[in-house]
Amino acid sequence: MFELGGIFEAIGKWLNGFLPPVWVTIISAVITGLAVLGFLSLLALFLVWWERKISAHMQQRYGPMRTGWHGVLQTIADGVKLLQKEDLMPKDADRIVYFWAPIICFGAAFMAYLVVPFGKGIIVQDLNIGILYIIAITTFTVVSLLMAGWASNNKWALLGGMRSAAQIISYEVPLSLAIVGAVMLAQTLSMNGIVSAQAGGFWHWYVFREPLGFLVYYIAATAEANRTPFDIPEAEQELVAGFNIEYSGMKFAMFFLAEFVNMFTVSAIAVTLFFGGWQPLFSFLGFIPSWVWFMGKSLVSVFVLMWFRWTYPRIRVDQLMNFAWKFLLPLAFLNIILVGFGIVVFK
Amino acid sequence: MTVKELKTEEFMVNMGPQHPSTHGVCKLVIKMDGEEIKEITPHVGFLHRSIEKIGENRTYAQFVPYTDRIDYVASMNANHAYVIAAEKLGGVEVPERAEYLRVIMAELNRIASHLVWLATFAIDLGAVTPFLYAFREREMILDLFEMTCGQRLTYNYMCIGGVNWDIPKEFEPKLREFLKIFPSRVDDYEDLLTNNPIFLYRTKNIGILSKETAFEYSVSGPSLRGSGVKWDIRKAESYSIYDRFDFDIPVGYNGDAWDRYRVRMREMRESAKIVQQAIDGLPGGDIQTKVPRTWKPPEGEVFTRIEAPRGEMAYHIVSDGSTKPYRMKIRTASFCNLQVLPIIGINHLIADLVAIFGSLDIILPEVDR
Amino acid sequence: MGLAVFYILAAVILVSALFVVTLRNIFHSALMLIVCFFGVAGLYASLNADFLAAVQVLIYVGAVTILIIFAVMVTHQLSGKKIRQYNDQPVPAGLIIISLFLLFVVSLSKTGFEVVKSISSSPTVEGIGKALMTSYVLPFEVVSIVLLVALIGAIVIARKD
Amino acid sequence: MDSEGLLKYITEEYKDKIIDSGIVGGVATIEVKPGDWESIAEYLKGDMETRFLSVSNYGAVDYREKLGGYQLVITLFSYEFNHKLTMKTLLPAEGEECPEIKTLSAVWPVADWFERETAELFGIVFVGHPDPRHLMLDEDWDGEYPMRRGWSGRDFITKPDK
Q1: Rounded to an integer, what distance in angstroms lies between the CA atom of residue D60 and that of residue D37?
Q2: CB environment B277-290: b (16+ within 10 A), e (fewer)
Q3: CA separation for the pair C36, C10 (Å, rounded)
Q4: Residue A89 lies in a domain
Q5: Prediction pTM value
Q6: Which residues of C touch B1 (CB under 8 A)?
Q7: How close B2 comes to chain C (CA, Å)?
Q8: How far apart are CA A259 and CA A310, in angstroms?
């Protein structure tokens, strides 16, 4: 009941009835693409509103209250405003690169959802290298930040771009190594496969098998998503706004929404790898649809990321590098060794 | 081959005049090697209004509202500095009650000013939440000021010979309520920041201001006390009635950003103590010694100074016996404190510069006047 | 359809590679290199070498080119300025290119390409892993040591003292 | 030392350099010749009995009408002994003349900005100043000294170009 996975299969079957298979592939690709895009846009709108509400309540104020019930329509109003804004481009900017940077940023954020299992059977394409694919595709985010920083022809933007490149490259290493632990346990790279390997109650979740791996992953993922305390590429107080200082209007909105989509992406991966994905807490709770479990767990993770942001100060750029290379990296290696031992011992 | 032999280029950026962390319009031209700062040149004067010149063209009483604008974050203290100088020049006696009210207002404003500093300092380091916490308490102080003099930022409260308005009935209970909750609120801020490892990383050993440098640059106020110098004009040259109150002078040890932070946090508690003693001992009576509208102080000159939230604020007034000052020189704390930034800011990263600038608590209108 | 995909990808790779060597702005060249690498990854993917495709993107786009861009950004003499992509010796260069091209043509025409009827669509990761740990374990370890040496060398050069 | 004691000590120690002395508004005050301005500052800073490590205030007064020149006023103080001293000197000048004096910024680095401000506002030239740029005023502001008596901003309001 209420499982959405069946719907997609049904649509596929129905299309197969009267169309040649090539057309079915194309049509279903378009449909899923639009569905994911629509879902992510709504999600980003929701997350922006949610963050504003969370920060407001943490700071003992209300946040948006006027547009709609408790300000739910505030982000839409902001979006409409941003659409109407003049699209400024600095005179000496590199026009082509400046234009493409936000598109690549948003595109990379969007592409990652090709392999995210939202629920039982709700996955666009269950690639058997799923997790590797996500790591690979998110590197385009850093390319786009570099492009934005460079093309703006602004020193602050350039500094922001350089910081983000240094940061993301550094944190990609412990992040990937933290993922290796889960892959070793599940013996597959496929996202669905990893979820299935954690079936049967919460004690099978990998967060209890390799807490160290989860810790490393979550810290590195916070840095990958450019969230406080690691939000140094756009540190408002130091670099004014970092790489997106010159962007306005819709282009700025794309960077902004991509940040929230990325935040959800790292949360979704955390849930998939360490919290059993769409698996229920206990198997007798299986009557609750799998996508509800997935969304619930992911939003909790997003909430924690937001909690970080409104509690911690920002770490300094060299401290950030030291932390990645001297603390997280050895920890990630230790995790791999421990997981290897565990697999051999407990078989 | 080591890195030093490799040829590197220096990189110049303009930090300001419109930058979120300069807290006003100050331009810092920074020469950087990578992200490490090699040279800082401050450019000020964007807010120069020549208040000293205005002072020569206004009567003594007319000038009080202008003092508000010298330091808009601590207007009460700025008022206080001027009226003390003018009273000393003319030999005006101030009623007891007015002195107490002045101390209450000045110390409340010191707390409010330190709260603004805390808020902006935290935000400079990327912590947004303490900002709103600090402004919540500042709001209570501003409410107290509003009910007394109708203003929330530039008060024009003190006048030569006393204060302009007496406190209303509801002032005292509100103030006592504030004093009751304030220490626990300071604990809240400390919970958020003081022992947070990231905060410690960002402030410990950052921007060390040695005693010697502090002396040479006449750094004053909490920034000086952070370097371990127990110097507070309220104690050292006890003006007004500060000798009647019991309070400590918090000092730091290393002179880094963290010490300056600690000194200000503890100073807020000390100020609350002073306000408590002042409100308990508040006598009745007049609030003003009548000073004629065309007040002519005798010919002569005077130099007085007070401890404003940011440090020493001094007035040097020369009178030629007319209704207007002949010359008025205003010495403000930020003017001297800002000069150490190029000394203590180099060889740090740009993120540290923001922390150092925040920890010095510079108010640009005070520099530019 | 597979052929159409191949031609599109080949065109992307060739055009972007041409831009890499002809564009006069070094930052643009680096970006074009990304496009080129991405095209190669697409080729791998179309040949069902999914692991290789992902690794191509991860390493070449995610690490190598970003480091190149990073280096370009740090050196201000290079970024922004237009630089010459050719030197003063077109004749010897042309000769070498033509002879190389002829060599390729000859070797390609002499190779008998075997047509595989069906490409296995089974996961390649496991196979690669097993091969690396069994039959190719010696080259694998040698590569690891070479990389380690390079790493140590880089640290020694960059050490501050 | 209290103000009297300090004044007594200084007038005895440096009597050949001091023209006038007294206690003004509770602060010990001495007047010196412009030529001794820098040397006496050095002595006062280094003297173990006075230890004037810091400058509390430093500015000028336009006394052209009354005394025929600009008076430089510097207030020194000592953290150690908690005493203050005001030191003055009169720079003769008439009309639009710009008098010259040696800088104190080598003695107290804080005098740097004070002197820059005084220089641009009063038109006093500090010889040997390490950084004689404008501080408060525009870099291209030239030939007008706003803090001189008689200067009025009203003459200076310019209408923006069409």
Answers
A1: 14
A2: bbbeeeeeeebbee
A3: 9
A4: yes
A5: 0.81
A6: 157
A7: 6
A8: 16
Separation between Cα atoms, residue B181 and residue B198, nearest integer Å: 28
The 3-state DSSP class for residue B32 equals: strand
The minimal CB distance from A143 to the residues C1, C61, C125 is found for C61
- The class of domain D3-148 in CATH terms is alpha beta
Contact B236 D56 (CB under 8 A): no
CATH number at residue B251: 1.10.645.10
Residue among B32, B27, B26, B28 nearest B12 (CA): B32
Q: What is the pLDDT along chain B (369 residues), one digit of tens a residue?
A: 344 455 556 777 787 777 777 777 888 888 887 678 888 888 888 888 888 888 888 888 888 888 888 888 888 888 888 888 888 888 888 888 888 888 888 888 999 999 988 888 888 887 778 888 888 888 888 888 888 888 888 888 888 888 888 888 888 888 888 888 888 888 888 887 887 888 888 888 888 888 888 888 888 888 888 888 888 888 888 888 888 888 888 888 888 888 888 888 888 888 888 888 888 888 888 888 887 778 888 888 888 888 888 888 888 888 888 888 888 888 888 888 888 888 888 888 877 888 888 888 888 888 887
> In this complex, do A310 and B129 lie within 8 Å of one another by their Cβ atoms?
yes
Domain that holds residue A134: 84-346
Report if residue B42 sits inside a domain: no
Whether cis (ω within 30° of 0) applies to the bond prior to D130 is: no
Q: Where are the domains of chain D?
A: 3-148
- Length of chain A (residues): 347
Q: A312 vs B201: CB contact, 8 Å cut-off?
A: no
Which residues constitute the domain of residue B178?
47-333
Contact B38, B27 (CB under 8 A): no
Q: Is residue B142 part of a domain?
A: yes
Question: For residue B125, is it within any domain?
Answer: yes
| SS3 at position B277 | helix
φ, ψ at D26 (rounded to 5°) = 85, -5
Q: Point out the residue among B3, B9, B11 whose CB comes nearest to the CB of C158.
A: B3
SS3 assignment, position B315: strand
Q: How many CA atoms lie within 13 A of D16 on its CB side?
A: 1
A34 domain-assigned: no
The total of structural domains in chain A comes to 1
User: B262 vs chain D: nearest CA distance in angstroms?
Assistant: 22
Whether A135 has its CB under 8 Å from any CB of chain C: the answer is yes
Chains D and C touch (3+ CB pairs under 8 A): no
Number of domains in chain B: 1
Chain B residues with beta carbon closer than 8 angstroms to that of C75: 9
| CATH top class, domain C1-78 | mainly alpha
Which residues make Cβ contacts (< 8 Å) with residue B259, sequence separation at least 6? Answer: B226, B227, B228, B252, B253
How many Å apart are CA B127 and CA B192, to the nearest integer?
Answer: 9
DSSP assigned state of D14: T
Asked if residue B84 lies in contact with residue B98, where contact means CB atoms within 8 angstroms, the answer is: no
Comparing A246 with A102, the larger pLDDT belongs to A102
Has residue A98 been placed in a domain? yes
Give the C-alpha separation, B48 to B70, whole Å: 10
Cβ-based neighbours of D121, under 8 Å, separated by 6 or more: D60, D136, D137, D145, D146, D147
Residue B24 lies inside a defined structural domain of this protein: no
Q: At what angle do helices A21-58 and A74-84 cross, to 10 degrees?
A: 110
Alpha-carbon gap, residue C152 to D82, rounded angstroms: 59
Residue C62 per-residue DSSP state = I
CA distance C75 to chain B (A): 8
Largest Cα–Cα distance in chain D?
65
Interface contact C155, partner B, CB < 8 A: no
* Mutation site, D57, D104, D115, interface B, largest B CB count within 10 A: D57
DSSP string, B106-125: HHHHHHHHHHHHHHHHHHHT
Which B positions 15-54 lie with beta carbon below 8 A of chain A?
A: 19-21, 35
